[in-house]
Amino acid sequence: MATAKPALAVWKFASCDGCQLSVLSLTDELLALADVVDVAYFLEASSAVHEGPYDLSLVEGSVTTPDDVERIHEVRRASRTLVTIGACATAGGIQALRNFADIDGFIDAVYAHPAYVSTLATSTPISEHVEVDFELRGCPVDRHQLLEVVSALLRGRRPSISPASVCMECKRSGAVCVMVAHGTPCLGPITHAGCGALCPAHLRGCYGCFGPAETAATGALAAWWQEILGVEHTDLLRALRTYNAGASEFASKGEQHVASGA
Q1: Which residues contact 214 (CB under 8 A, 6 or more apart)?
Q2: Which residues contact 25 (CB under 8 A, 6 or more apart)?
Q3: Contact at 8 Å (CB) between 194 and 164?
Q4: 76-99 pLDDT, tens per residue?
Q5: pLDDT at res. 30
Q6: Which of 1, 58, 72, 85 has the fewest CB within 10 Å, making it most exposed?
Q7: Angstrom distance (rounded) from CA 77 to CA 164
Q8: What is the 3-state secondary structure (H, E, C) of the chain?
């Protein structure tokens, strides 16, 4: 008797859809994946919807509205394993910049009828609302890492994703350190690997797209930027508040600089 295929679901919350597009870019791999799983819910790819429970749910996007809060709990209840993909889902995304400002002021400035807008004052990662089984960083995620996560979890093993920083990717590729050799501010020492050191390979500093590394010495890097490279306070703060503005390691150091004014 044939065994039922594992059910895969892909969900969107507040995001740009970039991580879902990374899933769709796995053209050949998706064809093979379709043979072993039932893509039960993935509105970016198909209008077909199958009810849960789902063996594996991939969640893109952050929680930004009251409806999001209710829906992520529904997704969690329907999912045996839940994986968050991308900077929005794992750290609140670039929209987490609202966390450091007056959301009511934004709404009044942008919308003609603010009374009709239902939103939260913050943009938060999925893990602040429900239990998450695995987090995959990136803006967007690396499609090969994504394939490793999906295949590993469907086979019942732990995904093999390196916890190293971007600096390790630079060393493995033989790239010259832009910060040491050229004095270019770079977030590579505190940023999770996964991009292949794309920016440093083109003599640009890392922008932190993959979020904080597991042992991110944010304070030490900030001191180096300011004392050795002469980076201004506002530029340091701007670097910490981009794609992963809501990540605790970046947010807490940013708040310290705001409080100290230096």
Answers
A1: 163, 192
A2: 143
A3: no
A4: 999 999 999 999 999 999 999 999
A5: 74
A6: 1
A7: 32
A8: CCCCCCEEEEEECECCCHHHHHHHCCHHHHHHHHHHCEEEECCCCCCCECCCCEEEEEEECEECCHHHHHHHHHHHHHEEEEEEECHHHHHCCHHHHHHHCCHHHHHHHHCCCHHHCCCCCCCECHHHCCCCCEEECECCECHHHHHHHHHHHHCCCCCCCCCCEHHHHHHHHCCCCHHHHHCCCCCHHHEECCCCCHHHHCCCCCCCCCCECCCCCHHHHHHHHHHCCCCCHHHHHHHHCCCCCCCHHHHHHHHHHHHHCC
Strand partners, 248: none
Domains defined for the chain, CATH in brackets? 7-154 (3.40.50.700), 166-259 (no CATH)
Q: What is the rounded average pLDDT of the residues 18-23?
A: 91
Q: Which two tokens stand for residue 102?
A: 């007056």
**Rg of the chain's alpha carbons, rounded to an integer?**
20
pLDDT-derived band at 10, boundaries 50, 70, 90: very high
Q: Which of 168, 162, 211, 204 is nearest to 183 (CA)?
A: 204
Please count the other Cβ atoms lying within 10 Å of the Cβ belonging to residue 94: 20
- 5 Cβ neighbours under 8 A, 6+ residues apart: 36, 37, 38
Confirm if 130 and 79 have CB atoms less than 8 A apart: no
8 A C-beta contact, residue 69 and residue 129: yes
* Cβ neighbours, 10 Å, residue 5: 15
Please state, as a whole number, how many other Cβ atoms lie within 10 Å of the Cβ of residue 44.
Answer: 14
Structure token pair of residue 57: 């749910």
